[in-house]
Amino acid sequence: MKIVLIFILKRIMFWIILSFLIFILTAILLAVGGTKVYGFNYPNGQIKYRGYLKRCRDLVGLEKKYHENGNIKSKIRWKKNEMKSALFFYENGNLKTSIAYKNGEIDAGILNFYENGNLKSKMLYKNGVPEKFFKIYDKNKEVEEKVEKVELFYPNGNIESRSYFIVNKNVETVYQDGPDEKYYENGNLKSRVVFINGKVNGLMESYYENGNLESRIPFEDDEPLGIAEAYHENGNLKSKYYIDRLHIEYICCWCEDGKENKMLNLYNEKIKEIKEMYRKF
């Protein structure tokens, strides 16, 4: 019995040491590549967010967000600040929604699941635009719902807004699903966001009238959550910051000429230090 216990303890120590070495190696590789991990917690100390920024600018790797009970809320794969895939989960840990992206647009479609794991619906996409929608009511029956495109125009004939709605006449329901785009009168894109089951999910993007990106804010179920970014009107990056329903915390800021805003960054660091000091009391 004693020999068995010694063997078990050795195995446990082996895996603890191995896990520690993997953690250290990963940290070294990230540091060499200029990549830093950013983490934020709930007020109770439970982990809420973990993400990776390369050289303080580009989101890379696997970004994870958590429910307050500790279960995973979402997993988002990034490459050079471009979203590649997104998985959203219920509080019980089961998959809620699966989305694939290509060149910043939704590719192939969106799969939605019931909380028990059964398929609920699937929206087919082509070139970032909803094509067909199928809602699953049970294991054997597949019902097609109609996708309605709604467009508004300026007096000069240019598009003002474009959105998509799911219409189910059988149960008399209508809800927004798919991309929602608004335009300036000159034809340039003003804002873009994606609705899933009537709620904002993914990146909410705003643009200046000259066509340059103004801001990108990640949303999940109508609430901001994750690392967002703002831009100067000339196209240069202005700031990277973490945002959720409760607070905003700046990560790094830049001047209009593209240089680091050292004064503002120093101020933000001091604010963080003060917050940490108060948390300890």
Short description:
The chain is built from two helices and 21 strands. It is an alpha+beta fold and 281 residues long.
Percent range for helical residues?
10-25%
Number of strand segments? 21
Per DSSP, the total helix count is 2
Q: Hey, roughly how much beta strand do the residues contain?
A: over 45%
Biggest β-sheet, characterized? 21 strands, antiparallel
* Overall mean confidence score, pLDDT: 83
Low-confidence stretches: 27-32
Work out the oligomeric state of the chains in this entry: single chain
Amino-to-carboxy terminus distance = 48 Å
Structural class: alpha+beta
Cα-atom Rg, whole angstroms? Answer: 23 Å
Succession of helices and strands? HEEEEEEEEEEEEEEEEEEEEEH
Give the overall shape, derived from the CA principal axes: flat
